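F.,

This is the one I mentioned.
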């Protein structure tokens, strides 16, 4: 397998400007197949612009990019067959039930046996009990999990998650994190954009920080932490993380007995 085939996504010297605003100034990174890659940056850093170029929704001014081995500029149709995109807001029909949303998308994508596909995804994302309910009764975390489940119909090898937990409460965010981890465990390549440091820390195999139009660092969490000088070692009682405190207080019932 060549390096090109081993990478689900390749970005080389990507540039994009809007009149005098230089959003991307030569962005480079690769995403290994079956991994979670976090593109971390503040608002306006250019994260969504990168995703839009990879999704063939926007043309780059310079540089190249490929998804699943296909060039986004010259093989756009093959690229679009290779990925699914989940944006910042859940694209679900609130009038329909969760199962009806999944069946509808399966029909639109001409997938055989859409009912069985819907039922499998409901189970995979811990939504079976809520499957017959209208989405309007779902919590934010449930809607987002359904949205991600819908994006997996047709088994795309690559999924783009553009700030998937924006606007969610802490418990819903943890629900989505669990769903994303399941994606990668099943072999799906995930490109995640986020401005939440904890989200990148929890999920990503590799993290790239996009700042002022360039990738300023790219590595594993351990590699990024090694960039700072070692802290002075002090022997203190280990304190629980905020997530541990939160789960101990509310209980880890997010994906089981959820209420609207």
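My design for it:
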């Amino acid at each position: 397998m060549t390096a090109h085939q081993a990478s689900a996504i390749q970005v080389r010297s990507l540039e994009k400007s809007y009149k005098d605003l230089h959003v991307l100034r030569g962005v480079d990174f690769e995403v290994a197949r079956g991994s979670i890659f976090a593109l971390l940056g503040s608002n306006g850093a250019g994260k969504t612009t990168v995703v839009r170029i990879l999704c063939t929704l926007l043309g780059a001014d310079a540089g190249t990019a490929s998804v699943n081995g296909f060039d986004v500029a010259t093989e756009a149709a093959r690229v679009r067959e290779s990925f699914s995109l989940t944006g910042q807001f859940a694209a679900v029909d609130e009038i329909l039930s969760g199962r009806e949303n999944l069946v509808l998308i399966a029909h639109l994508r001409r997938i055989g046996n859409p009912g069985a596909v819907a039922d499998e995804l409901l189970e995979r994302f811990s939504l079976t009990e809520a499957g017959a309910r209208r989405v309007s009764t779902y919590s934010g975390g449930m809607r987002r999990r359904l949205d991600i489940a819908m994006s997996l119909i047709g088994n795309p090898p690559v999924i783009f998650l553009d700030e998937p937990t924006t606007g969610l409460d802490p418990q819903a965010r943890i629900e989505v994190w669990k769903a994303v981890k399941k994606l990668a465990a099943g072999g799906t390549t995930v490109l995640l954009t986020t401005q939440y440091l904890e989200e990148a820390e929890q999920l990503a195999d590799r993290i790239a920080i996009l700042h002022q139009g360039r990738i300023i660092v790219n590595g594993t969490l351990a590699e990024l932490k090694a960039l700072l000088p070692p802290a002075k070692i002090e022997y203190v009682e280990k304190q629980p993380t905020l997530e541990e405190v939160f789960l101990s207080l509310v209980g880890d019932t997010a994906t089981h007995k959820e209420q609207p």
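Strands lie at 7-18, 21-32, 36-40, 62-67, 70-71, 83-86, 158-162, 189-194, 206-211, 214-219.

Talk soon.
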